[in-house]
Amino acid sequence: MRLTISTGLLLALCASGSIRGQTWERLGPDGGMVVSLGAGPGDDVYLGTTDGHVFASSDSARTWELRGRVGHRMDAVVTRIVPDAREMHRVFAAVWYQEPGAGGGVFESEDRGKSWKLLGLENEAVRALEIAPSNPVELVAGTRNGVFRSVDQGKSWAQISPAGDQEIRNLDSLAIDPRDPDVIYAGTFHLPWLTRDGGKTWKPVIAGIIDDSDIMSLRLDATNPARVYMSACSGIYRSENQGGEWTKLQGVPYAARRTQVIVQDPASPKTLYAGTTEGLWVTRDGGESWARTTSKDWVVNSLVVLHDKNGGADRVVLGTEGQGVQVSDDAGASFAEANRGFTHVTVKQLVADEFNAGHLLMVVERTTSEIQESRDDGKNWTSLLPTAIEHGKPTTLNIAEVKEAYSSPWGWLVRFDNGRLWIWEESNKSWRQWKLQLPAAKPSSTTGRTLRASINAAALLPDAHITFSQKDALISTNVGLLRCQESGSCTGVKAFGHAGKIRAVWTSASGHEIAVVKDGKIGWSSDGGETAVWTDLPVPEAQVLWLDITQSGSQETACLGTSKGIFSSRAPATGPWQQIEGGLPAGRVEQWLHYPGIWVVSERDGGLYVSSSNGVSWNRVDQDAERSTFTGLIRTPNTTVLAGSQSEGLLQLKLE
Predict the structure, then answer these.
(1) DSSP state letters, 190-239
(2) Residue 317 and residue 304 in contact, taking contact as beta carbons nearer than 8 Å
(3) Cα separation values, 82 from 85, 89, 140, 184, 320, Å
(4) Which of 196, 209, 272, 278 could staple 296 via S-S, CB 3.0–4.6 A?
(5) Within 13 Å and on the Cβ side, how many CA atoms surround 588?
(6) What is the DSSP code (8-state) at residue 570?
(7) What are the beta bridge partners of residue 218?
(8) Closest to 250 measured CA to CA, from 305, 198, 195, 287
(9) With contact defined as beta carbons under 8 Å apart, do 423 and 432 qualify?
(10) Domain with 584 in it: what CATH number?
(11) Is residue 536 part of a domain?
């Protein structure tokens, strides 16, 4: 997060005002990770994500819309979506939460995914869910703790696997015999199990399977339910006698054997589709031979086959990890992207160029990670190539390893996980490594020698702070605060040059004023870091996230962003500090933005708050469709804010 924010962010608190209205728009990019797909009895297709959001298509996966969110948490993985074949408005969802031990549950929507209610198993991480074909009021769920069944459409649940059983637990897949709802197959992290009496007794069905196989998918043949297809980490298997004996099918290479899903083509029962971590594999002869029909780089998480009611070709719909939704109208021979309206991309960084108006940068995680640039306030975006020059030779940067992006006086700058810094050179359309040089050290007391070395990954702290004046950079390192030039030459900042963890750094545009949070105090300097005055923090040092200092006329004001809210002071060198409240929760403030009359704040656990009264009162402006962790806020003309979202892509908020 940038530490140097717009001048004038903190003004004297004034009379309360209000935001008259706001309008949100999803700007894309299209695509994102698909966790689950479910086909309804009509033309509806449902899509589950990793944050509880459910998208839906009413035109057989041609276009999409965001319907709603399952529950209220932002870490809800919708691992299975099961539409009710009898009632087109009813949909069920299996959910588990990413927070360890938080559970999940089975949820139901009666309005085609717009609103959801918890049916049960709220303390269970539900990873599999099926409706009994011959008894639609019966639901079976697989969780971390075992197999559960409801015989009243989810109103009540009972565990039908032995409680505390160390084998029938950690469920990944389920299948129910279409003729007899008491015949249930359960795939666990360790081999498959079968009950023929509704769970009273269970037996492992493992003959022919390599031991310790994670069973990811189970599929009963539509023409012969005694024939069962199963995918495991050791490959794809077929049984002709309800799992009594399994035959391992050949043709899918070992590298692609993590098969997430197997689906049979209802119009051509010998055609099966296997979605793997290395693309889609198709068999046209019941599993005797297989061929991959997509790129091996695709990770296929889910798959449905949509029957064409007008006699045309059935449509194969893939949900992938990086390519979003892909569709085929030639039985899986070729695929085309179908992400229109499905916007669920990760924006890792969103940065405004403080030295050039309208110039923006965005680090996006979609099919691959990429850096995009806009020169018209976000209306149009182009990709910056990952090419770089290192040691005089061309190389390719792994954008997925970008830790943070910055606006510097010399152009865009990115810091990687390994500590390396790269500057974008517009003239060469490539990245140049910014090699920083440590200042000369004092002579060693034992050898008398003076040492000089390049700052490397070990010297830059993992959470190093970098901020810029109009001419140089201030960087926190393991040898104190350094002032660095475009050439990479660095000198120590005298008042902040001793070792110790620096929590936050601020500098004025001129570079004469510097503030540093360190060792439980705030150090203030008005002479470029030659001297400093130290004062106490209003909160424990570990809670500090960022620091900003602004000046309005002769009035200097400081703002401290913390994990417990925002604190401000008109006399930062002496205090006192007061917490900003007025409807702003005392949570972790990650991003904020100010322009005349408007403050905008985002909190880590979700929530975008706006004040038109210089912080006296706040309104929350994000609705469920936008609720996410925000990764950047930028002001554009006409009272418009661009918000980078960790799951919803790039959003635009128009304020009135």
Answers:
(1) S-EEEESSTTSS-EE--TTSPSS--EEEEEE-SS-TT-EEEEETTEEEEE
(2) yes
(3) 9, 12, 11, 17, 18
(4) 278
(5) 11
(6) S
(7) 230
(8) 287
(9) yes
(10) 2.130.10.10
(11) yes
Distance of CA 275 to the CA centre of its chain: 22
pTM of the predicted structure, to 2 decimals: 0.86
Instruction: Decide: 231 and 239 in contact? Cβ < 8 Å.
Output: no
Domain count, the chain: 1
Report yes or no: 70 and 118 within 8 Å, Cβ to Cβ. no
Neighbouring residues of 321: CB distance < 8 A, sequence distance ≥ 6:
33, 34, 298, 299, 300, 301
Q: In this predicted model, what pLDDT tens digit does every residue of 469-495 receive, in sequence order?
A: 999 999 998 888 999 999 999 999 999
- Write the pLDDT tens digit of every residue in 547-585: 988 665 566 778 899 999 999 888 777 778 999 999 999
Say if CB 98 and CB 75 are below 8 A apart: yes
| pLDDT single digits (tens) 582-600 | 999 999 999 988 777 788 9
Instruction: Report the relative pairing of strands 336-337 and 104-109 from DSSP bridges.
Output: unpaired
Query: By the 8 A CB rule, do 489 and 472 touch?
Result: no
* Structural domain that includes position 400: 345-655
Whether 581 is covered by a domain: the verdict is yes
- Whether the pLDDT of residue 654 is over 80: the answer is yes
Domain contains 278? no
Are 401 and 414 in contact by the 8 Å Cβ rule? The answer is no
* Number of residues that make up the chain: 656
Q: What is the pLDDT of residues 593-650, one digit of tens each?
A: 877 778 899 998 779 999 988 788 999 999 888 998 999 999 998 789 999 999 999 9
Question: How far is the C-alpha of 144 from the C-alpha of 508, rounded, in Å?
Answer: 53
Domain annotation covers residue 58: no
89: its two tokens: 């408005």
CA distances for 83 relative to 73, 80, 115, 218, 541, angstroms: 22, 10, 14, 18, 51
C-alpha 346/C-alpha 343 separation (Å) is 9
What is the chain's alpha carbon radius of gyration, rounded to the nearest angstrom?
29
